[in-house]
Write a structure and sequence with these properties.
The protein is α/β, with parallel strands linked by helices. The protein has helices spanning about 5-10, 15-25, 30-35, 35-45, 50-55, 65-85, 100-120, 125-135, 145-160, 170-180, 195-210, 225, 245-265, 270-285; strands at about 140-145, 165-170, 185-190, 210-215, 230-235. It contains 14 helices and 5 strands. Strands 2-1-3-4-5 form a 5-stranded parallel beta sheet, with helices on both faces.
């Protein structure tokens, strides 16, 4: 996760003194990399010690490491903006944006989400998540809102390659399914913020039943992340269109597709055969033709 994405993920958890530092970093990053710790403390109306503590919340040793890392991040962004033909100060959409600006900005946001998520993906964690899902007798997916759509899409794809997978639509289904979960099962939850109460409770319930628990989230320090056994981290910048979940949806879909692909390649011949069979049967059902006996759909 990039520094700016990490700050946004933790924004609501910062105390007022650190929140002022976070706001300045997000709004005036160029100013920050040109500042000393003393001048930044004055600008943020806080102490140098607070700035050091702020840097350590990002797993950095202090202000010097923070400033170097932020400068490198801004340098990469300059190159990305140039390729996307965006102005240097353009990241969010503003009132009066032209159609061309809307298209280029949204494309940039989504591309950035993919690039940063891939760059920060912990392959050891990802491999363990694939192994846990591969070993599961039943896979459950859960999320709320846009995250729920991603969970549903993953479960549908897994079901098509012969993996027993069920997307839970609400907390009632979580309760019903949780009653019968056991250590042979796995739950994968999607939550951009990691603070959605229903998601946290679903992970806790699955853990109590001994099931494997995986969460895909933008905040590795969130309640959902703390409740899960494995955390797959996305890296997404928020915009004024947060309610549209632009970047978070893209990053979650990327992780979902990678998990699906990895599981399909665990037994590719079986996955390909299952896709053919389910595709044939769906075509028969849509046509209104009689449903053949089991085992004859592919013939």
């Amino acid at each position: 996760m990039t520094i700016q994405s990490a700050i946004q993920a933790r924004l609501d958890s910062y105390p007022p003194s650190m929140r002022r530092v976070a706001d300045v970093v997000l709004q005036e990053p160029d100013l920050v990399i040109r500042s000393t710790i003393a001048t930044l403390a004055v600008r943020c109306q806080t102490s140098e010690a607070t700035i050091v503590r702020f840097c350590r919340t990002l797993r950095l040793t202090g202000f010097m490491e923070f400033r170097v890392a932020l400068a490198a991040e801004l340098g990469l962004e300059t190159a990305r903006r140039s390729r996307a033909r965006l102005a240097m100060d353009q990241f969010d959409l503003v009132d009066g944006s032209s159609l061309e600006q809307i298209v280029s900005t949204i494309a940039y946001i989504e591309t950035l989400s993919v690039e940063e998520t891939v760059a920060k993906l912990d392959m050891d964690v990802f491999r363990r998540a694939v192994e846990r899902l591969d070993a599961a007798v039943t896979i459950y997916g859960f999320g709320v809102g846009t995250s729920g759509s991603c969970a549903k899409d993953l479960c549908r794809k897994l079901a098509r390659i012969g993996r027993p997978a069920h997307a839970l639509r609400d907390v009632e289904e979580v309760a019903v399914s949780g009653t019968f979960m056991n250590p042979e099962d796995a739950l994968i939850a999607f939550s951009h913020t990691g603070v959605t109460n229903d998601v946290v409770r679903a992970i806790q319930l699955a853990s109590q039943r001994g099931a494997g628990t995986i969460v895909v989230t933008n905040d590795v320090d969130s309640p959902a992340a703390r409740a899960a056994s494995l955390v797959i981290e996305t890296s997404v910048r928020e915009t004024s269109l947060r309610s549209a979940s632009l970047g978070s949806r893209t990053a979650q879909s990327l992780v979902s597709d990678c998990l699906y692909g990895a599981l399909a390649f665990r037994d590719l011949p079986h996955a390909q055969s299952a896709l053919r069979d389910t595709g044939t049967l769906m075509g028969i059902l849509r046509s209104g033709a009689p449903v053949p006996p089991k085992g004859e759909a592919s013939g």
